[in-house]
Write a structure and sequence with these properties.
Length: 64
């Protein structure tokens, strides 16, 4: 499972989402940024920023 936490991009925001693939996660994150943070123009760099912060949820937390 892939995980994106908005707080890594917008300090203080606790929104996060999980999805099976990055494309779906990016889509949800963009939607959240538009609706919640008023980002009307999602620039290419924004998508890159989201992708850079998506991580594998299973990697280190499976044992927790
Ligand atoms: Zn947010």
């Amino acid at each position: 499972m892939r995980l994106f936490e908005c707080g890594t991009l917008v300090p203080g925001c606790e929104w996060h989402s999980r999805a099976q693939d990055d494309a779906e996660l990016v889509r949800r994150a963009v939607e959240h940024l538009r609706l919640t943070h008023g980002e009307d123009m999602i620039r290419e760099t924004m998508v890159d920023n989201i992708k850079a912060r998506i991580r594998d949820e299973d990697a280190n937390e499976a044992a927790a």
